[in-house]
Amino acid sequence: MNKFLLASLALFGTVGVQAQNSTNTKTTDSLKIKETSRLLNEVTVTEMSNKNKSAAKLGMADIKRGQGVFMDDAINTSMPGVLMMRRSVSGGQQFNIRGYGNGLGPRGANNNFDSQGLKMYLNGIPVTDAEGITIMDDIDFGSISNVEVLKGPAGSAYGFAIAGVVNMQTQKAELNKVSIGQNVMVGDFGLRRYTTSLQVGGNHSSILVNYGKQLSDGFMPHNESTKDFVNIVGDFQLSEKQKISSYLGYANSYDQRAGELTVDQYNKKDYSGNPAYIKNNAHSEIIGYRFGLGHSYAFNKYLANTTSVFGSSNKNTASSAGGWTDKSPVNVGIRSAFDLRFNVFGRELSGTAGIEAQQQTYESIGYNMVANNLDPNGYNLIGSMKSNMTVTSKTYNAFTEWNLKLPFMFDFSAGLSLSTMDNHLEDRFYNAANNTASPETNKPSAYGAKYSNLVSPRIALNRSFGQNFSAYASYSVGYRAPVSGNLFIPYTGKINTDLKPEKGSQYEIGAKGSLLNSRLAFQVALFNAVFSDKMSSVSVANAGNTATLYSYLVNSGSQDNKGAEVMVKYLAYQSSNGFFKTVQPFANLTYNDFKYDNYQYQSSSTRVVADYSGLAVAGVAPLTYNLGVDAATKYGVYANVNYNYRDAMPITSDGVNKTKSFDLLNAKLGYQRSFLKNLMADMYLGANNIMGTQYYNMVFINQMPDAYIPGPDKINYYGGVNLKYTF
């Protein structure tokens, strides 16, 4: 353990540690389903909430503090250590959790796309596919009611989750209530959001049907967004021992891409976009379905099971400066977990054991794009086919986690998983030059790689101090396997068999609780995450060393990420009779000291080997903090103001190119009131970027000179009305 952690633990030793609770810690005479089994939509939430004190949570109040339809404003304001970005108005989203990059970039050690290394769930259904890629264009963020993020390697329960785990839950119908709702939001840049909902809740069942339509013209040229969403959520309590949960989602999402701005464009506030993207009608389109069906059963007070089956299918088309791609992935899977509880020598031992398996198959066809001779000034056309590949990916994860209660309010928890990923590819793009008997020139039509039985342990020691304070120390491991595109070297016709999965190991200590008669809530975490076997590239030159023949990936070096995260909320004022009901300020801070360690990269253009060792990790701000206050009055008026600061950061791994720091000031004012007892109305008006600051929604790391996806640099307004009638 390095000096950073030794110093932290020395300070921490004066406080003690509290064990992380297992999913079920209450002892009851009878084991009812709602108390002991993790339902479909709780499979990941309860594991993260109760077993991991580093899990950060957002509720409806946090999400609705901003516009409530993009999610990055809520994440970036309220979750230290987590950064959410987007490539277009409402597409190309990605998470950066504690500095974990998303693979290899074209000119360095980070990339921006596909959120590789992250494991994401929606209502217990994996959004991350069997290959480890997470696309979020089809998620209706406007229907999300809560979000939980487990920060850092989480392989012991979730398999290939080197960066962490994100679980999102959609809204649900209230029990014993029947209601209809209509929400309307409008804003600058042609933003329109319409949501219609029907909620039917009984004593033992509830169904919610939600339809949303979201449109925006964007503030840049070629930046429109159109989305249609349908969500159907049902819960059915069959008996005290048995429950069924279900989810069905449909999305039709189309986002134009204006492309990234060059550094010079961004500095001059030239927001005309990237001509190569616009000419190719750059966009992302997803039309598809996502479903899940879960069954929970309590056998007795010692044993319960939750099993869910899930799947998704969509049509996925995308174009950019490099061409056009069509994909049609079909993903299916199962997750089954047993909850167990025993009494061992008078001490409670509880645990979980289960499996998760996924399989995905898709065909990916790539096309060149050519000028339209009938309309030279219009968009380019789809031209000749340049690739045709089918990919089948299978992921298996067997996991178990246990918690033992010890004397003096200590708990010890430990977990272990075995994960396997198997990728098989078939090249259907025929090339006569490859169809020869010579092994030196023959390109295989089918190939793949399997990464077997990767072991991900986790241990934690925790201690409680009464009901309002706890502390913990933990160690966890996770992996990210190479995706299918990393496995083959086209120039040589050889499989890249030496490429290994990246490995993440994290030490963490922290504390959370409440003070001052529960008016002050806080959470503090110190961590050291090391990501080893990071992928880098090697270039091979021709005999005269005058040109690059080809490049391929190798494992090279690591990232050493040390950081601190602090979050506090204080109920400064509360009254049942005064004008103000509540006044609650909040603040959070993230400090990052992330460095490359023994990391080398070879440029494909210059073939010069660059050594990034000791330099700051690109794409991570050293300091980020947020300040805000929420207030509500007894007359139904509510308001919030929040201030966000993000430090300057390097955007190339050599540290030469950096962003500028920026700060944003946002505010919202609303009014809630009941009419005729059954009708609830919520009216609001908000303003973003009140100070007119230039800022970015995303930065393309190591892709100079193209770099920035900007946000609006002027104040912009939005407002809306939410109506709900309860029968």
TrEMBL record:
<keyword id="KW-1134">Transmembrane beta strand</keyword>
<keyword id="KW-0675">Receptor</keyword>
<dbReference type="InterPro" id="IPR039426">
    <property type="entry name" value="TonB-dep_rcpt-like"/>
</dbReference>
<feature type="signal peptide">
    <location>
        <begin position="1"/>
        <end position="19"/>
    </location>
</feature>
<keyword id="KW-0998">Cell outer membrane</keyword>
<feature type="domain" description="TonB-dependent receptor plug">
    <location>
        <begin position="54"/>
        <end position="165"/>
    </location>
</feature>
<dbReference type="InterPro" id="IPR000531">
    <property type="entry name" value="Beta-barrel_TonB"/>
</dbReference>
<comment type="similarity">
    <text>Belongs to the TonB-dependent receptor family.</text>
</comment>
<dbReference type="Pfam" id="PF07715">
    <property type="entry name" value="Plug"/>
</dbReference>
<feature type="domain" description="TonB-dependent receptor-like beta-barrel">
    <location>
        <begin position="247"/>
        <end position="690"/>
    </location>
</feature>
<keyword id="KW-0798">TonB box</keyword>
<keyword id="KW-0732">Signal</keyword>
<dbReference type="InterPro" id="IPR012910">
    <property type="entry name" value="Plug_dom"/>
</dbReference>
<dbReference type="Pfam" id="PF00593">
    <property type="entry name" value="TonB_dep_Rec_b-barrel"/>
</dbReference>
<dbReference type="GO" id="GO:0015344">
    <property type="term" value="F:siderophore uptake transmembrane transporter activity"/>
</dbReference>
<keyword id="KW-0472">Membrane</keyword>
<dbReference type="InterPro" id="IPR036942">
    <property type="entry name" value="Beta-barrel_TonB_sf"/>
</dbReference>
<dbReference type="InterPro" id="IPR037066">
    <property type="entry name" value="Plug_dom_sf"/>
</dbReference>
<protein>
    <submittedName>
        <fullName>TonB-dependent receptor</fullName>
    </submittedName>
</protein>
<keyword id="KW-0812">Transmembrane</keyword>
<dbReference type="GO" id="GO:0009279">
    <property type="term" value="C:cell outer membrane"/>
</dbReference>
<keyword id="KW-0813">Transport</keyword>
<dbReference type="GO" id="GO:0044718">
    <property type="term" value="P:siderophore transmembrane transport"/>
</dbReference>
